[in-house]
UniProtKB/TrEMBL annotation:
Subcellular location: Secreted
Entry superkingdom: Eukaryota
GO MF terms held by the record: signaling receptor binding
Sequence similarity: Belongs to the IGFL family.
Major location category of this protein: secreted
GO CC term (a single one): extracellular space
Keyword entries, A-Z: Secreted, Signal
Residues of the signal peptide: none
Protein name: IGF like family member 2
């Protein structure tokens, strides 16, 4: 046994035991701490790509409306008097008959929105029609 300067007893280990231990610790310190992935791939690694029918679309630029991929800025006709954004709103019939009335309602994020349960955005009679 050996004694160091402070008087604590230490064991003498052979170099054949210490060398691999030092090399292992050194290699562990060199390893990167986070996963390396290609730039811009983060959202796609763990999430399924959104689909519209059998086609993939970019939800930052498009949505799926009636099994068709639609631009977020695209509008559609709602009744005779107004337009709506199909990515963000619903065109809902309020009454039928000789004079049909329509209401534009908001789509609720993350829910399969339906006309009877969505909040009203505007009534088409009071909303101006855009070209």
């Amino acid at each position: 046994m050996r004694f160091n300067v402070s008087g604590i007893r230490t064991a003498h280990y052979p170099r054949s035991v210490l060398a691999p231990a030092y090399v292992s610790v050194f290699l562990l310190l060199l390893c990167p701490r986070k996963v390396i992935a290609p730039a811009g791939s983060e959202p796609w690694l763990c999430q399924l790509a959104p689909r519209c029918g059998d086609k993939i679309y970019n939800p930052l630029e498009q949505c799926c409306y009636d099994d068709a991929i639609v631009s977020l800025s695209e509008t559609r006709q709602c009744g005779l008097h107004c337009t709506f954004w199909p990515c963000f709103e619903l065109c809902c019939p309020e009454s039928f008959g000789l004079t049909s009335h329509f209401v534009v309602k908001l789509k609720v994020q993350g829910v399969n929105s339906q006309c009877h349960s969505s909040p009203i955005s505007s009534k088409c009679e009071s909303r101006r029609r855009f070209p």
